[in-house]
Amino acid sequence: ALGLFTGIGLSEAKARETMRNGVLSALLRRAVLQARSSLGPALDKATGTLLYNAAARLKDPKHLAFLVGYIARREILTDLQLNAALEYLRSHPLEPVDAADFEQACGVGVCITPEQIEEAVEAVISKHRAELLAERYHFNMGLLMGEARNRLRWADGKTVKNEVDLQVLHLLGPKTEADLEKKPKAAKARLAPVEKQKVAVVENGDMGTETQSLLEQLRGEALKFHKPGENYKTEGYVVTPNTMALLKQHLAITGGQVRTRFPPEPNGILHIGHAKAINFNFGYAKANGGVCFLRYDDTNPEKEEEKYFTAIREMVEWLGYQPYAVTHASDYFDQLYTWALELIRRGQAYVCHQKVEEIKGHNPPPSPWRDRPVEESLLLFEDMRKGKFGEGEATLRMKLVMEDGKMDPVAYRVKFTPHHRTGDKWCIYPTYDYTHCLCDSIEHITHSLCTKEFQARRSSYFWLCNALDVYCPVQWEYGRLNLLYTVVSKRKIIRLVETGAVRDWDDPRLFTLTALRRRGFPPEAINNFCARVGVTVAQATMEPHLLEACAREVLNEQAPRAMAVLEPLKVTITNFPAPKALEVLVPNFPADESRGFHKVPFHPTVYIEETDFREEADKGYKRLAPGQPVGLRHAGYVIAVQNVIKDVSGRVIELEVTCTKSDVGEKPKAFIHWVSEPLVCEVRLYERLFLHKNPEDPSEVPGGFLSDLNPDSLHVVSNALVDSSVLSARPFDKFQFERLGYFSVDPDSEEGKV
């Protein structure tokens, strides 16, 4: 093989590298031997390069002999022709290939004369003559090349370039010193970062802001996905004699529309990783004028609860997406059962009695029942359906080997658990490996998008659709999104709830979507975060502060300002300027006062933060102290300490101050927030739930994730004081408490207790 490959012009290193790839090596050997039988043992390097590229780039090896025949007969001579040939064969996967149509598409027999090249270049130069004379050799010569090649598609590129160079020299003469100077680069206008270019979109009747970049990442050619109906152009897609007819039917049903689906299991609450899946599936459909189904994968009745179904749909809609249809795998149980019988009849599935423990792992013993007669499997499968076998006594298995070496995956198992939708109708339930691709087929999904761990199931996905001769969608994989300092597995969140570390699935310290909503994260911030992470194939593990930065960006625009005091210190103004309380107008958004104001009462008694007063002002301290006045934000007054009142233990409990108008006298060093006649509220301050980045990693946390809990992850301020403008706020309304941070009204709020 080494001599064979170096004999066509490959370097020894390249030849050895090729030999390490068994599939490529075998194809190239076949190609070279076939070409030698026509051209003799000595092949020139140009032919060798064409043969290597044909073997390396041909998607379907069954066309290799056909293609090599054209190279050996010197009918395909250039890389340009080879590219056209490879594209034609990819688009026409079925045999026999229409030779006349193929030859026309690849320029076979087309002869381009030097005169034709000369004329084409002359026409192009004539078209750009004025610019050429003005810019001389600074003109983009690639443009001339491209236009000349467009006029003569099969012309040799080198010949065209030589003719362009010759005619340009004839027009402009030799290069001068000015021509040799580098052209100064035009200053580019600075663009705002993509993630900050916001565009208003209408979702569910509300105006929201959405980062453009996600839709830009998902639109059209951006992902190199196949077009609807061109599934066969995807690498690894299996083409059968029925494929093209099934794709034709599929296009007739969908009208060429992109169709995706988001298929969660209804046995837990969605988390931040699901937000990427929702954005990817719904976003890809939206960006390409398509539709997305929300399909519940409800094939495991033991773990499913109604609250999960409701919460999943709620979260999808909260993120701003409306499903085209809400479906369930259980909608198709009858069809799936009928197809299982057909699979047995075709000799592609059998009833097996190996125990679950026996078939676990990657090298289980082969099933002794693999070759049992079809009629026997049909009767036993019917017995499984009638409940004649106990749980674990029989399964239906498919006859295939998956990418990861797993053999004969299970299609059906016995479970005596009533289903929340079908009741007691079934005591056998299909598995993910069996259900998923067939539900995609029934719904005519064009792009089945899933996370990278399902790559090992791609072959079973294609195999099952083809074994039943039904429309076969294309599975595409992308990388999961993970966050540091958290756990997202359902089992671990249940342990956190059971041990009392968190209150429930929506505890604001978790990264489930219900928890993020309760914490106050706007849906736009989560979508923007997913857009910044990007649609990567590699798994992404991100720091929580990146998500928080996205939240701040949105909240800065959306959350009105209010004033709140978490550690109150009473302040009495002894020379209050009015006989009764005043009203102060506070802008909802100080940077844009056109967005309205709210009224705050201003009484002789106000409350400030304890930390905004010191008895002794050290260097750099700018807030309130004896002899150092401060301004009250928005009030238009400056206060100065006259008297400090303490309790028996010496703790400061009240200040007596005088006030003056802020436009009289010297400007104070600082302005502080305050409240007067406030609401008493409970405020919960949250920090990270875990101390280490990877609480599940035994090398970081040997004692397990429950030993890594942050004891200060929740601090409750029972008697915080908030200005009365928040009185009418509803759960999930958000505010920026000036100088403190962003806060959201918790659903625990009730009449009289915010």
UniProtKB/TrEMBL annotation:
Keywords: Acetylation, Aminoacyl-tRNA synthetase, ATP-binding, Cytoplasm, Ligase, Nucleotide-binding, Phosphoprotein, Protein biosynthesis. GO terms for molecular function: ATP binding; glutamine-tRNA ligase activity. It is an enzyme of class 6 (ligase). Residues 671-746 form the tRNA synthetases class I (E and Q) anti-codon binding domain. Coiled coil: none annotated. One of its GO terms (cellular component) is aminoacyl-tRNA synthetase multienzyme complex. It catalyses: tRNA(Gln) + L-glutamine + ATP = L-glutaminyl-tRNA(Gln) + AMP + diphosphate. Monomer. Part of a multisubunit complex that groups tRNA ligases for Arg (RARS1), Asp (DARS1), Gln (QARS1), Ile (IARS1), Leu (LARS1), Lys (KARS1), Met (MARS1) the bifunctional ligase for Glu and Pro (EPRS1) and the auxiliary subunits AIMP1/p43, AIMP2/p38 and EEF1E1/p18. Interacts with RARS1. Part of a complex composed of RARS1, QARS1 and AIMP1. This is Glutamine--tRNA ligase. It comes from Serilophus lunatus (silver-breasted broadbill). The lineage of its organism: Eukaryota, Metazoa, Chordata, Craniata, Vertebrata. The gene is Qars.
